[in-house]
Amino acid sequence: MNYLKKVVLVSFCAFFSVSLMAQTHPSLMLTKANVAAVRKGVATYPLLRQSYQTVKNAADKALAEPIVVPVPKDGGGGYTHEQHKKNYSNMLSAATAYQISGEKKYADYVKNVLLNYASQYEKWPLHPKRKSEDDGGRIFWQSLNDFVWQIYTIQAYDLVYDGLPAADRKTIEEKLFVPILKFFTEDRYEVFNKIHNHGTWNLAAVGITGYVLNKKEYVETAIKGSNKDGKTGYLAQIDQLFSPDGYYMEGPYYQRYALLPFVLFAKAINNYEPSRKIFEYRDKLLSKAIQTSLQTSYTDKTFFPINDAIKDKTYESIELVYGVDLAYADIKPEVDLLDIAKQQNRVIVSDAGLKVAADLAAGKAVPFKYQTLFIKDGAKGEDGGLGILRSGPNTDQQTVLVKAASQGMGHGHFDRLGLLFYDNTTEIFPDYGAARFLNIDTKNGGGYLPENNTYAKQTVAHNALVVDQTSHFDAKVGPADKTSPSLLYFSNQPNLKVVSAKEAKAYADVTMVRTSALVKVDGLEKPLLIDVMQAQATKKHQYDLPFWYKGQLVNTSFPVKAKADGLSALGTKNGYQHLWLNASNKLEDKSGLVGLLNKNRFYTTHFVSDNPLEVKLISIGANDPEMNLVDGKAFMLSSSGQNQTFASITETHGGTDPINETVSSALPSISELKIVKSDAQQTVISFKLNGKTYTYQINYTDKQNYISFK
């Protein structure tokens, strides 16, 4: 056989394979070839059985209720919004129950819901509550929700396809799915080609629907963009939104959200066209993205809430259930992923869920390997990143995060070199997250609150340095998107874990360097968090470094005389207008300490400044007429000068037993924290512990000996 014949035959076989696969249903998460095995697995493996029972219960509940497909009217969280969400969830549950039980009533339910939508969809105008003409959906107030609806619904249709009469399939496809494809690709052309999570959901919905309906032109458009030139589309989204480490530029919360369309479309591509080797693309980038999503969480399952994030979101969310199942079953069976699946306490009733449940039942799980690492940001890995330091077992782990990443587009916050600190499965120095009550209609329709811009995004809302009471980049996204911090040093030694990064563009004439470390010292059960924030400038400024904290204030080195009434705001803009000034103290020796009690454990932060120091005790809540802001407290280190260094050591010690009414090691062990020297070349600090003097030195210009501790 000559070369040309081989090429023609291979091309024909590939096309024939796609055409043939398109006629085989189900063909997405659960495939026809594995239905029997999954049915057997439901009867055999506890987690798969439990997961299926949850799905079947939801399906049975749906069948017992009347089908309601209301004319779209309400915004996020409103009745029609929630009903349409409920409908796609019910359809997928019923469709899954049909495949496992074989009972026709479940397929009939999905058919009847879809026929109801098909009878109305083309009559619906753009949603009356749409945010704008070019972003509104037909079913929901924003087109994003329409895309999500379709991704879930097409899975349900694929599962019941063979259980529906041909005439009904024709009606559903011609009156519902084809108009939806047209709306997504033509009416929402700009969104379809946008490099953004909204674009990802759109093109994934189009691509998966194209496979199921055997409309290859839509598949190609989804993969390569409307012009099929690869400048937009699915592959371009992977190329531009993820770093080589698998970090998604909008942050962990949106990485979690965006993962579902990425992995579902990848699964469809792999099933229909395995020759594309989509799971190998960009050095298995989707696998890295799933792992990175998990690495950007704490051991309490919550994601690091940087940027616009709802703080109680965990990796138990459906997106990561899909992601973990597919990562384990379709990409690489890393056994520590089974630990996550076990904590998620469910699997997708699918080919991948079967493998995960079987290996869990076989006892293959090991604790998830949380790592100390620097996760690079940017398509080429050149836009800073996240420094994550960890110490201790998953059951009681200290974790430090330094945010030295890119802005993250419109969902980014202005918190260059911001710090988060966790211990004892809880937040110690938290991030505020987003000012939003998701889908709670009484709170701004469930969307972002005005305070998201006036407070949550502002620098003072974070554990980050504020200069002249002005946010980084003057809180403007455009300039912030053009530049990123840079990593100066990273170390993962057993007793000295360090990340140091520089931000030189947030302010016109100020260069900031933050160096944070977890340092193990003989005689202490827990490492010390040593944090040095240095600012170099060409003129004098006011510098504020807040430490937002969780827990109760139980100890200070200075008298606290909080105002009993007549509170005033700390400032008038840039987030300061939302802060109450409760107390302030000027410290003559430029040093002090604040002690906290959090979850029955003590945390004492010792701090020192190289310029005259004032400590302000502040809380959230000023100028908040609708009571939108969430409570929070901080101690703020404030100083004025040309150059500024704030050094702090947070010591973890002792605790309380409220049952037995005992207290241990309530007082800190560290004393005499001093800045010995701080300039552009070095910062040297010293402190005493158990009679011994320790020296911690940062050598900013010496990469080989950047950190010295002795």
TrEMBL record:
Chief subcellular site? periplasm
Q: Known InterPro entries for this protein?
A: Alginate_lyase_dom (IPR008397), Chondroitin_lyas (IPR008929), Hepar_II_III_C (IPR012480)
Q: Where in the cell is it found?
A: Periplasm
The Heparinase II/III-like C-terminal domain is annotated at 377-585
| Keywords carried by this UniProt record | Lyase, Periplasm, Signal
Domain spans labelled Alginate lyase: 62-296
Pfam families attached to this UniProt entry? Alginate_lyase, Hepar_II_III_C
Give start-end of the signal peptide: 1-22
SUPFAM superfamilies found in the cross-reference section: Chondroitin AC/alginate lyase
What name has this protein been given in UniProt?
Heparinase II/III family protein
**Which species is this UniProt entry from?**
Pedobacter ureilyticus
